[in-house]
Design goal:
Elements (H helix, E strand, L loop, with lengths): L15 E3 L4 E3 L2 H10 L11 H9 L4 H13 L3 H12 L4 H16 L2 H14 L3 H12 L11 H15 L3 H15 L2 H14 L4 H8 L4 H19 L11 H16 L2
Antiparallel strand pairs: 1-2
Helix pairs in contact: 1-4, 2-3, 3-4, 6-7, 7-8, 8-9, 9-10, 10-11
Length: 264
């Protein structure tokens, strides 16, 4: 399944707003597509009474709406909320449903902290960086963090650093990467830390930083070469000329992208 399939049911005049990724949907096919590709974002912001009313009134699917409302009242699992929606229009092929069933089974077995991390990761993939940051921060405040698998907190800190860097909050990003490196001695975390450090300090300072961290000479050399290569590649990209007549449209596009990424 590469994209939406042809609508088999009524298209809504009034869309349903998916808060998690700031997106409107107009059909049950679009809802199925969202759930199939964003299982870890299937929470109370999707499954609520407003969704039931929208399915009943806008899509004119009263039986499905009643089933979902009943499941909401019974406080069933996400898996049991998802199934009736897919079955309504047989959205998935037999093979896709088998594969999705495996995903649902794995989803049901995962610890809450792992689910939350995957939710944060899904938000990052959808460009919702502020929302992702909030999810990652809540995970790091959990009382049971030390009960998770080894390096789980490191992975969360690293991804938190990535989310900050996508918002160009480099000082916060480098703090996350440094903490991740100190906890794991990961070359990947070190590389991310030095790269973000170099983006806001004198480019020659990262030599000193790696000395202070006691970085192995070979690792130090590899990181320096990679950063320098990245800088060279970035510098070689020609600056795009902006047509003054299209400036307003460009600014509007940038503003929309900013508001989407910040969840505002």
């Amino acid at each position: 399944m590469s994209g939406y399939i042809l609508c088999q049911t009524k298209k809504a005049e009034r869309p349903y707003y998916i808060e998690n990724i700031s997106m409107n949907i107009y059909s049950i096919e679009e809802l199925c597509y969202y759930l199939y590709h964003n299982l870890y974002l299937a929470d109370h912001t999707i499954f609520n009474e407003e969704l039931c009313s929208w399915i009943r009134d806008e899509l004119e699917l009263p039986h499905l709406a009643a089933k979902l409302k009943q499941n909401l009242e019974r406080n069933v699992s996400i898996e049991d909320m998802v199934y009736p929606i897919f079955k309504e229009i047989n959205y998935l092929t037999y093979e896709e449903m088998k594969s999705f069933n495996i995903c649902l089974a794995d989803f049901g077995k995962e610890r809450q902290a792992v689910r939350q991390k995957r939710k944060g990761d899904a938000l990052v993939e959808n460009g919702m960086y502020v929302n992702a940051i909030q999810v990652y921060q809540k995970i790091l405040e959990r009382d049971d963090l030390n009960q998770q698998r080894k390096d789980f907190a490191v992975a969360v800190r690293y991804n938190l650093g990535c989310a900050y860097s996508y918002l160009f909050q480099m000082e916060k990003a480098q703090e996350c990467f440094l903490q991740a490196y100190k906890e794991s001695q990961s070359a990947e975390a070190l590389k991310a830390y030095v790269t973000t450090y170099a983006s806001i300090h004198d480019k020659t300072d990262y030599d000193k930083v790696m000395e202070e961290l006691g970085v192995d000479d070979k690792v130090k050399k590899d990181i320096k070469e990679e950063i320098q290569e990245s800088m060279k590649t970035f510098a070689s990209v020609p600056e795009k000329k902006i047509d003054e007549e299209n400036l307003d449209a460009l600014l509007e596009k940038l503003m929309k992208e900013y508001h989407r990424s910040t969840g505002s």
